[in-house]
Structure formats: structure tokens, C-alpha cells
Design goal:
GO terms for molecular function: D-serine ammonia-lyase activity. This protein is of the alpha/beta class and 357 residues long. The protein has 11 helices and 17 strands.
Length: 357
Amino acid sequence: MKITKPTLILNAAVCRANIARMVNKAQSQGLELQPHFKTHQSKQIGQWFQELGVYKITVSSLGMAQYFAASGWNDITVAFPCNILEIDAINELAKDIALTVLVDNSDIAELLNSQVRNSISVYIEIDSGGNRSGIKPHQLEKVRDLANQISASDKLKFKGLYSHAGHTYGAKGESEIQNLANKSIEQLSSLKQLLLSEYPHLIACFGDTPSCSVLDSFANIDRISPGNFVFYDVMQSEIGSCQLQDIAVTVACPVVSIKQEENQLIIYGGAVHFSKDHSGKYGYGQVVEFINNGWEIIEGATLIKVSQEHGIIQLEDGLTSEFKIGDVIGVLPIHSCLTAECLRSYQTLNGELMDHY
């Protein structure tokens, strides 16, 4: 494994195990898995899902949808509030694939109806607690009116309800994830039941990695669409979604300087490689050393500071002598989605290069 600059290293075996675990969970719960590909954004990793029978996917942008459509995916949901300024991309995609978009207000539904040239499916986005986009689950009449507006169109197909419980990322432990997720699912399930008589084919899609990783029951949910689980990260291990050994990526960083008196390593690896997401326990990432077929944690090493290209690792007394300039060490990312976006390509442990959208 030749490393000369910050490189995102993928443990393919761990990644495949994460995928298989979520596929098996969905099957055991009678759910359809429509995974979110915003984390890995790689056509090669996408093929690992296809090998296990996954043929519908979720993405976070129309550009990403175009990338995966070019790789043969033909049923794609763009899980981001529909941007009418990208109507040309919507129309081009809808010519060739089954495209689904998200709306949460009547204005965008009207604009879509007036400007789409090909039939597209529409989810109404429900805000289940993340306080981002979406209609609040108690606003039944607003949801019903929007569903009726969509259904009255000859170009838009009302598909159902979509919700991402992003607030679970702030949980402190598995039990809190379960409590937050169960409340979100209960709200979404109740809303679905109130609309079923009018829309018997309505689909309820729910998905975030913490919820989908720890829950064993999903009530009346039909589909799940988690994304981060493909790699996991330090944040997910901290809140109880996974174990550190489930993290499938690390950033390999050259040691470029050593400050003996301060017990610090200076690495080539900074905010433009990891992002600036921070953990109270692990700093800007968990420091690891590479071993055969993987990596292991370096106890007593903390990535305490990052600037644009620099990273500073603080070592406990006595550890500095174990490193030299030119060594390569790893940093498990706090948030793997952002780290993958920063570095935009992967190298497996056996040296294979893999692409990123």
C-alpha cells in the first residue's frame, strides 16, 4: 500500500459486512431497503449492493442521480427538497429512469406540474424531529391537501411519505436512539394510517443510520433508506449505532514532522481531508496504525487540532519515540460522509483504486 498524501483507505471486508447486515435486517423485518448512497458515492460499492439484491437507491442530489443512472441504476429517489432550478436535469433523468423527488409545499408541486415533461413520482417529506425541511407530522390537513394536489396532476405520481430522523445523530447511547426513532416511526406510521383509505398504495419510507442500526421493529414502515452504515464512523460508534471495528474507512496520513518536546506528531492531513467535525473524546478523529488486513487503535494518541492541511496528534509520554518522519498512520473519521466527500476516491487495503462521484 503506497501512500504519499492523505488517502481514504477502505476495508472492503468490513464494508461488505455492513451492507450484508443491513440487507439481512431489512429482509427479516419485511422491509424494502432503498439505501442512501450519499456516503460512499461509488459505482463499485454500489455493485456490492446489487450483488445482494438491492436495485432501488436514494441519493442527495440530481448530479449524483445522473452519475448512478449512467452506471445502470434505474429507480432513484433524490432525498433533498426538489430544486426547480434543476428542472432540465429532472426532465432528462425522468426520460430514462423511475425518478422520485421530495416536496413539502404546494408551490414546488405547482411548479413541478407546470414544468416536468415526463412522469415522476413524488414523496411528501415529513419532518420527524430533525427540524430541517419537511411538514410536521401533526399537520394532517396540510399533508392531505398536498397529496391531493399531487394526485390531481397527470405528470406527478403521489408515492407516499418520506422521513429522515436526523436528530438521532445527537443521541447519547443506544436507548436514546431507540426512544427518538420509535417516536418518529410512530408519528410517520400514524400519518400513513390516516391517509391509507384515500391512498391505499401509499409507501412510508424512513431512514437514518442510527435508527436502522439499532431498531428491531419498524411498525408500519415499508422502506428504509439509511446511508452512513456502509462505512459508519467515530460519531456513530460514540452514540451507539456501531462498534469501532465496524468502521470501514480511515484516512492514511504521512507523518511530516515530530515535535519531541511537546510529544506531538504533525501529519499531512487537515480540515480539507477530514472536515472539522469534532468529538469530545476523540478530537478530530480516532488515531490508528495499519496492520495486516486492517488497522488498530493507537492508545494514547489524539488528533487535537486541524488546520487546512495540517493535523496535530498529541501523544502520551513515551510514545513519540515509536514514530519517525515518513511513517503513515490512519485517522478514523468523525463523520465519514464528509470525509469521503473531501477526498473523493478510495484505495482498498490491497491497493485497488475505487471511484467517487
